[in-house]
Model the fold of this input.
Amino acid sequence: MQSPRNLFSGLLSPFAAAVPLSLALSGEASAHVKWFCAYDVSGQPRGLENVLCLNFEWLVALALACLMFGCLAEGTPLGTALLNALDRVTTRIRTDTELLVRATVGFFFVSLWGLGGVILTPELKTDVAWIPWFQLALAGCLIWRRTMPITGLGIVFLFSYATAQYGLFHLADYPVFLGVATYLILRGLDVSPYGIRPLDIVRWTAAITLMWASVEKWAYPQWTDPLIAAKPSMTMGASPELFMQAAGVIEFTLAFALIWTPLVRRTSALILAGVFISAIFEFGKIDAIGHSGIIVVLLGIAADDVRAKVRVRDTVLAPAWYAASLAGFLLLYYLGHAAMYGGFSELPVI
Done:
């Protein structure tokens, strides 16, 4: 019979292998391609018959196997030990989550003021002179807790303004901004509507943001071609097409995990935070500014010590919910694009 230490090490080894694999495959691909390369949102996406190929299916099967391992560990002595360890390591982050969010969002808006000429993200350009000063004022409102809701409402206004300028489909990349806005408003007012925690709202919007971004990697892999040409080593010998498929599948799986059970979502949040932080070293200041908000949100999720009773169906239904989410986001992306840009006559066939 194995000792507890050997059993713990054996069960943890797939996690240990998954973390560097995730960082290697998707770290550099997680720099938002629209910030660094030319793109055309209105262009026809790659057909689903090319996306849903054999390699894609194998990658999804492998991702599901990793997800199921995490689900099976939940509620076991191993899972409890991992959660206890996470609780100890992240105590300070958990205690100061709100302060960290305020400081990071404040840094974000001051940085946008310094850059000038952008609305919320680097690719949303504007010539309107008051936008940078408005964003600086939103940073100032984060100094006091009671004025946090003003910053939240300001983010909603900027998101709406950018949507009017660039279109709903483009801004579908960024629902996490609305989640952060809601978090600031609710925390500032100290309310939890219908018992829903502000952190859970921003967690869901972060998951939606990343799942949508994953589909974009499959629909428009050619947008990343200039980055791959400049940094061919990032593919680790794989073809650019396979690399983008793998990066998208990893990102989608980790994003889906954010809406699942405590151990699964906290582990996923840590891996995703590591992915985004590693991308900063490669892509620099713009990437650090653009991803600062989602990084602090992910750290808050990783530190969240709220636990829930794990039911058998949480494990059994994980593949079904994953498949439904994957199909739903693919369908929503392609139908939404066809409705807004190409007309339904342009819908791809499988």
